[in-house]
Amino acid sequence: MLRQSARIASAGIVRQAAFSSSRTASRAVFTRFIHASRTLSMATPKPGPKLTAETYSDIQRSAQFKTLNSDDLEYFQSILAKNEIIHSRDPSDLEGYNEDWMRKYRGQSQLVLRPKSVEHLALIMNYCNEQKLAVVPQGGNTDLVGASVPVFDEIVLSLANLNKIRSFDPVSGILKCDAGVILETADTYLRENGHIFPLDLGAKGSCHVGGVCATNAGGLRLLRYGSLHGSVLGLEVVMPNGEIVSSMDALRKDNTGYDLKQLFIGAEGTLGVITGVSILTQPLPKAQNVAFLAVKDYQAVQDVFVKAKGELAEILSAFEFMDKRSIQLTKRHIEKDTAFPLEEEYPFYVLIETSGSSKTHDDEKLETFLESAMESELVIDGTIAQDKTELQNLWKWREMIPESSQCQGGVYKYDVSLPLKDLYSLVTAVNERLAAKDLVGAESEKPVIAAVGYGHVGDGNLHLNVATRKYSKEIEEVLEPFVYEFVSQKKGSISAEHGLGFQKKKYIGYTRSDAEINMMKDLKKHYDPNGIMNPYKFI
Amino acid sequence: MLRQSARIASAGIVRQAAFSSSRTASRAVFTRFIHASRTLSMATPKPGPKLTAETYSDIQRSAQFKTLNSDDLEYFQSILAKNEIIHSRDPSDLEGYNEDWMRKYRGQSQLVLRPKSVEHLALIMNYCNEQKLAVVPQGGNTDLVGASVPVFDEIVLSLANLNKIRSFDPVSGILKCDAGVILETADTYLRENGHIFPLDLGAKGSCHVGGVCATNAGGLRLLRYGSLHGSVLGLEVVMPNGEIVSSMDALRKDNTGYDLKQLFIGAEGTLGVITGVSILTQPLPKAQNVAFLAVKDYQAVQDVFVKAKGELAEILSAFEFMDKRSIQLTKRHIEKDTAFPLEEEYPFYVLIETSGSSKTHDDEKLETFLESAMESELVIDGTIAQDKTELQNLWKWREMIPESSQCQGGVYKYDVSLPLKDLYSLVTAVNERLAAKDLVGAESEKPVIAAVGYGHVGDGNLHLNVATRKYSKEIEEVLEPFVYEFVSQKKGSISAEHGLGFQKKKYIGYTRSDAEINMMKDLKKHYDPNGIMNPYKFI
Known about the structure:
The first copy, chain A, is α+β, with helices and mostly antiparallel strands. The first copy, chain A, is built from 20 helices and 18 strands.
């Protein structure tokens, strides 16, 4: 250990083992994986997820919604082109729209509408509202709480064909685009213009710009660039009655009336459909560093964070942590030629990213920081990326955890906020609880492989992934409401960034007061009196 | 000029002329000025502002509001202590609550309530709502659009006695405090704990933390720390019916339901009364630099900004500009012993502030930036502060402009957002218009002294101040709706950071669409069905 530590402390920077593929490649794999697994579920006996309506048989289809009929179809055909409509009674034809990424939820929609214009989308909404046809707005369908797939026969309203960049101003950094632009597409376009999207996340290759706004996604760089409530400048929204409300012309500062767009950021498509986004982007950093460090316990994770906030300050752009089990799980799943950057295993790992305007200054800050962290034995091992490929590969050890947790059969995902000091205690408690019920282990008859913890320390945001060999009511009942009660006792939030969706609808009371919940229900009723927008979810 | 330029280019840093007082002193003077001028208006024949009801005789008191009677007073006396109630029919007793900072608006309230607890404030609101007594929530009363003073006989509900810091967590940086804490008090407390408030503005010594949230204030460092929609984590709000809705426990990330607090940020007290604020503060920068530069035209202001964004990037914390007339006006008003930092006058000035974690790195970045800006003759003169006193004094030349514009008799203030390229064109257009009508000049018979422009280039936010010898309908009619029409044509916003208040209520249509305005009116009606919250204003 000491020998390795000395590598950083003396040489300042250490060469890593060769890495084979890039971060972008990792995302492509991620996207491919989703599609491949879906194809697999059709071609092999491996069953698809059970119908949500079967798994949760206490939820009933609401009788207030009309069932789709041939007149409705005719109407949609009168405004949309053939290739904008997918209609079928065969579940396999609509699988990609009915099933979620975790393969935990499956809806029964028989109709997907993919309008190419906002005006057409508005006509669809107006019709559905009048006819009381329930609708699920869907972006890239990378949601993790069952928010973006139907529960019963709701119509899927896909934003995928609204996918144009509208404008970009390099002086102000304001990007305007359709909601259906893929996040990575927007980011690539911005990078060509000296800017970056002020948010990054693993599902970048699939998720939509509109979707990240609708779910108020946080991601990997919230620490640096702040929340979407601050960076989104304007939205174009189609209301349930088909009215188009737009604040797309807004400049950086605009204090003329209530900030209506904020209502739709994080509303998960329950108040209206986001069709356009205006967002303040950030200048492309000229220098970037990534360090992958090992520490002896969770207390050291916190201490390294406080030290990094103080010393790396304005150049700190990400501070992520992973526990030993997260990395063990990832080692089993990651491409064979991707060597783990450290020689040994440790209880906790920390990934630090810096982004700045001077490579020399940033290197100096990071090296000074690491030298003193090693000297004081706060950090016990570590490596710094030497080039872009290494940087991307260090990130891979963080970004591959979700997929590695999911790929064996399924994953129960909990995304919570907790006071920093209590952040990891939930993972310990859940592992103890699973062990006590004899549900977890390496043996194939144990339903749970491991409960792993990782996440955004800088934001007080923990991801607890319970990797399973299959989904089962037994596991779910051990985990819920236990996890929510635990978080509530610590005054945390039961959803930090993933939202409520279907999974957490009934648990909102663990985080919000009755006064708040009543106010939310009242808002929902006010804007969507027929309740057609993404029903059975959220509030 | 070249000689001066060479000062920066060669020596890197130039010593300034001696400055006598600190920035904090400047704020104290600012606060004192307000009080002094008010005392003055009582002691001398100089008349106070005309009653708003007289100046704007087209606005009628709404008959739906009850007039205060002895039963009401008795009720308030039953819940509040004597020193929490100010009641009088003599206007001079309530002058400070009825008159705005610009001395442009004057209300006729006969009752000020200053509760010391949120529960008492809730009882007051509940009573006023039931009795249909109109209410104006008031913080530090430094508002610039007539939002914080009554128009007729509304009760003033002052937050001044709710002034406690509730808690601060140095690890997460989360500050929780009462709404009535003075911004400077909060900032001083935070500095003692290694942090700063993520917003700064000239009225810091008087304005309240709750007030800056209620008006969504922007201020001097929005460029670096973003908008309050991003940094406010939770609010405690008393609704018109007296219900207390709180999200004060929220951590940095919380996606559980609609983000209700956003509704109240910038609502100017028209939906509820903010009584508590939870906000993410920023680490205290270890190094700070301020440069005061001269450039030859507005195009150069833009070019310096783009260059600074690219080269100073993550350490750039403020980028302000001022025109020649702003500085000329300030020279007449500023303390005699405060020497102007440059030897000559120039068409435009730029103030650049950097904040970072390494003095050496920041100095190097700033010097490299300035050397190349001087070499290319983008910057034609300038100076860098050598110590904290000089830094504060350079800031004074920016911060004293509002007071210098107001002190001769009055000021028409316009705070607008415009695309950067068009930002200054409004000032030119207004000066031409005033000259054409023969309203502006150094002679004492001319009603207007000058129309000056300055503001936050980084945010596309211009402050246009029309300094007058007295308020008059004639001037107002030359300026309005001209200014709003101009801004609307350029797709700007008629209020960047000051809000709508009384002044801009009827002009909101220049920035917002009918669909948006209808939605706002609907929200207002929904949450404040009796319309008692800050009436005659906003929407």
